[in-house]
Write a structure and sequence with these properties.
With 389 residues, this protein is an alpha/beta fold. It has two domains: 237 residues, 3-Layer(aba) Sandwich (Alkaline Phosphatase, subunit A); 107 residues, Gyrase A, domain 2 (2-Layer Sandwich), CATH 3.30.1360. Helices cover 33% and strands 21% of the residues. It contains 16 helices and 18 strands. Strands 2-18-9-1-8-6-7 form a seven-stranded mixed β-sheet, with helices on both faces. The chain has a four-stranded antiparallel β-sheet with strand order 12-13-15-14. It has a three-stranded antiparallel β-sheet with strand order 3-4-5, with no helix packed on it. α10 runs parallel beside α12 and α11 packs antiparallel against α12. It is globular. The mean pLDDT is 96.
């Protein structure tokens, strides 16, 4: 069980160091990243942060030998808790730990809406849409300042066309320019164009989701994932050559790694009606880290059932205990955080997952999963290339 190293070894600390390098007026409230010198970054004309969704540290070591990403490997970092896109990408886009940004998983209960929503698309679980004017939900549900609005440099966000104009993405783009792309070649082309068009020192954040998508569908050991990783690695190498004259520090990192969970290790709540009867709401969070809202009178029965029936598959914690132990980050918590992690948290062991389905919800299969506390999920690589390497 790997706990995030918020004392200098996590992606939260990386963002503190990048904030310092980019001239943040007020330092982020965390320690700088151990082993990363800020001065070479701060003197670079351009800083690029490429977020490779789903690229675990172990996967890079096992599959990247001889490639550009492995060749420029700087160090191993921990993700945040939970080790999932909704929480970790928000850390990259805000500079904050989940303790402060309070986005805690794919599905979250928002008391402001009295509803469970998928955070990144901002859609309710099940069928339908929220009845809210465009752009208003992020302002109601998010309370943090985008990272790009904290820094002095000219900023650009490069995102897949499918999500570039999403409400989540636009909120976190702040004052930055937004560029979109469809192909891997266009991703790096848009980054390079942004660097060459900037008349002032710049910061570019770029997001690449395809490894995550393939790992979910085909698994960590699949040929499809390996082929896409090889294509990314080659494109990254070509990109470094193309921008060698631009005085650019290039960092690449990830939000989480992956494990596979075979169907026999996937627990459907429908097969445990006695457990379901103790719940006040559908499950929230992730399949590997599950937030449970329990009927007050059923708390003892809920805990007993998990320990007696699912004890080999999951550890159960009062949610307040994980807050007190610092799993979501150091410092003062956003006042909404406690309501967004339920009464109890189930942290799944080994390769187990737990899921449920709501009426009207499209069912889908996932082989590759993340969000848990295993080393393969929690550890991500930091790659450093260019003038600051």
């Amino acid at each position: 069980m790997i706990q995030p190293d918020y004392e200098g070894g996590s992606i939260v600390n990386l963002m503190r160091s990048l904030g310092d390098a980019c001239g943040a007026q007020h330092p982020l409230p965390y320690l700088p990243l151990r082993g990363l010198k800020v001065s070479p970054l701060s003197t670079a004309r351009n800083i690029v942060l490429l977020l490779i969704d789903g690229l675990g540290y172990d996967y890079l070591l096992e599959n990247g030998g001889g490639g550009a990403l492995h060749r420029h490997l700087h160090s191993r970092l921990t993700s945040v808790f939970p080790s999932t896109t909704a929480s970790a990408v928000t850390t990259y886009l805000s500079g904050l730990a989940p303790q402060q940004h309070a986005l805690t998983g794919w599905h979250m209960y928002f008391s402001e809406l009295d509803a469970i929503a998928a955070v990144l698309p901002l859609k309710p679980r099940g069928a339908g849409q929220f009845d809210a004017p465009p752009g208003t939900l992020p302002r109601r549900l998010f309370g943090h300042v985008p990272f790009v609005d904290r820094i002095e440099r000219r900023a650009t966000l490069v995102s897949p066309m499918a999500i570039a104009q999403s409400e989540f993405n636009l909120y976190h783009s702040g004052r930055a320019a937004v560029r979109s792309y469809r192909t891997l070649a266009e991703l790096f082309g848009q980054i390079e164009a942004s660097l060459r068009e900037s008349a002032a020192p710049s910061y570019v954040y770029a997001y690449y989701p395809d490894l995550d998508t393939l790992a979910h569908t085909h698994g960590v050991g699949s040929n499809k994932l390996a082929e896409q990783f090889a294509a990314l690695d080659a494109a990254f190498d070509d990109f470094l050559t193309a921008i060698a004259d631009t005085d650019t520090a290039v960092l690449a990192c990830a939000d989480h790694g992956f494990i596979d969970s075979l169907p026999a290790r996937q627990i459907d709540l429908a097969q445990h009606p006695d457990l379901a009867a103790t719940l006040a709401r559908p499950l929230c969070g992730e399949r590997r880290v599950v937030y449970c809202y329990v009927k007050p009178e059923e708390a003892a029965r809920f805990v007993a059932y998990v320990q007696d029936i699912l004890g080999a598959c999951a550890d159960v914690y009062p949610s307040r205990a994980l807050l007190e132990q610092g799993w979501f980050g150091p410092g003062e918590a956003d006042p909404r955080l406690a309501s967004r992690i339920g009464d109890y948290v189930l942290v799944m062991r080994d390769d187990w997952t737990l899921l449920d389905w709501m009426e009207g919800e499209k069912r889908y299969h996932q082989l590759g999963v993340h969000a848990g506390t295993s080393a393969r999920e929690m550890f991500v690589p930091l790659i450093l290339a260019g003038c600051a390497a």
